[in-house]
């Protein structure tokens, strides 16, 4: 079995290291820059609360070296995918299963959805249908990364919190051979992965978690524990979640856990900094645009207003602009 991790950041490195340590598949990583140099020189190191291990992985910047894969995990930021489509094309054959990122609403979200939005494409999220054509939705497996992790140095991944997992599923809810094989591979490699018969709703829950917690983290610059301890912060997160779930109801999605339960689970990783706050502190661009375009696209379809979400995102956008100006003083506010 050939598995490629396209992107060597926190999630990609975490997956690749566990797969490589288990030795149950041929795993490779497509990376670049300092990350690629570190992987080729020293391998991947993962540190958890109970374990630290280092493994060698086949790392390259050229996907053409690797050929067609059985599974491709695209662990880039959502806004990076469009420009990487040509580079990842050699990895994808007619029988390759691809797992694109799900930080925002993914381009394939309405594929095989029962109801009036079945097969609806989202031009706001997939310009000219490029992703839909490059990675046909029938080759997609949904995946949700409930993995708190960050990169402490190139090739070094620190897990935040004691638990991690990534459920996978077919968009039509079927129990296919390819999804069962992937679930078993991940689980046997130390990453609990159940087959989820409603992966679309699971993707929604993770999207909403990112939509609500990441902008608030950018504005407060607090860890999850600090947000939980502060007065009045989590009620804002809950209001945002409730607005988003009202959109989901109009789209025909069945969202299980209540906002209170989802918030409690998230803040249990008290020392974790949300990925967008990590990017802010590192001077990297913030992944706000996919979140903004995602909620606008689906709230317009559902004809449901999201005033609290809109307000928080507007402030987070300004925070991103201020940070960009501070890091690049020659740039003007826009």
Automatic annotation (TrEMBL):
It catalyses: (R)-pantoate + NADP(+) = 2-dehydropantoate + NADPH + H(+). GO terms for biological process: pantothenate biosynthetic process. Residues 3-172 form the Ketopantoate reductase N-terminal domain. Residues 198-317 form the Ketopantoate reductase C-terminal domain. Keywords: NADP, Oxidoreductase, Pantothenate biosynthesis. InterPro entries: 6-PGluconate_DH-like_C_sf, 6PGD_dom2, KPA_reductase, KPR-Related, KPR_N, NAD(P)-bd_dom_sf. GO terms for molecular function: 2-dehydropantoate 2-reductase activity. Its EC number is 1.1.1.169. GO terms for cellular component: cytoplasm. It is an enzyme of class 1 (oxidoreductase). It comes from the Bacteria. Belongs to the ketopantoate reductase family. PANTHER family: 2-DEHYDROPANTOATE 2-REDUCTASE (PTHR21708:SF45), PROBABLE 2-DEHYDROPANTOATE 2-REDUCTASE (PTHR21708). This is 2-dehydropantoate 2-reductase.
């Amino acid at each position: 079995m050939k598995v490629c991790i396209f992107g060597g950041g926190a999630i990609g490195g975490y997956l690749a290291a566990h797969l490589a340590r288990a030795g149950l598949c041929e795993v490779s990583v497509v990376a670049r820059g300092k990350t690629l140099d570190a992987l080729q020189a020293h391998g991947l190191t993962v540190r958890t609360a109970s374990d630290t291990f280092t493994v060698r992985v086949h790392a390259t910047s050229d996907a053409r070296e690797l050929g067609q894969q059985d599974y491709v995990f695209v662990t880039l930021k959502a806004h990076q995918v469009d420009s990487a489509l040509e580079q990842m094309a050699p990895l994808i054959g007619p029988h390759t299963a691809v797992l694109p990122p799900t930080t925002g609403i993914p381009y394939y979200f309405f594929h095989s959805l029962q109801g009036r939005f079945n097969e609806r494409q989202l031009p706001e999220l997939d310009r000219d249908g490029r992703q839909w054509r490059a990675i046909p939705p029938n080759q997609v497996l949904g995946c949700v990364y409930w993995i708190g992790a960050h990169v402490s140095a190139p090739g070094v991944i620190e897990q935040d919190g004691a638990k991690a997992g990534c459920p996978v599923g077919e968009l039509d809810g079927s129990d296919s051979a390819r999804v069962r094989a992937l679930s078993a591979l991940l689980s046997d490699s130390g990453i609990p992965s159940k087959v989820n018969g409603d992966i679309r709703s699971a993707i929604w829950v993770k999207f909403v978690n990112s939509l609500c917690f990441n902008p608030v983290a950018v504005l407060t610059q607090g860890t999850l524990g600090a947000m939980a301890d502060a007065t009045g912060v989590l009620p804002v997160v809950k209001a945002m979640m409730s607005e988003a779930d009202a959109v989901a109801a109009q789209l025909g999605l069945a969202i299980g856990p209540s906002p209170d339960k989802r918030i409690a689970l998230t803040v249990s990783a008290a020392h974790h900094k949300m990925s967008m706050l990590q990017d802010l502190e590192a001077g990297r661009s913030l992944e706000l645009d996919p979140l903004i375009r995602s909620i606008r696209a689906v709230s317009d379809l559902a004809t449901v207003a999201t005033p609290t979400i809109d307000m928080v995102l507007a402030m987070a956008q300004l925070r991103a602009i201020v940070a960009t100006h501070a890091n690049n003083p020659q740039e003007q506010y826009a």
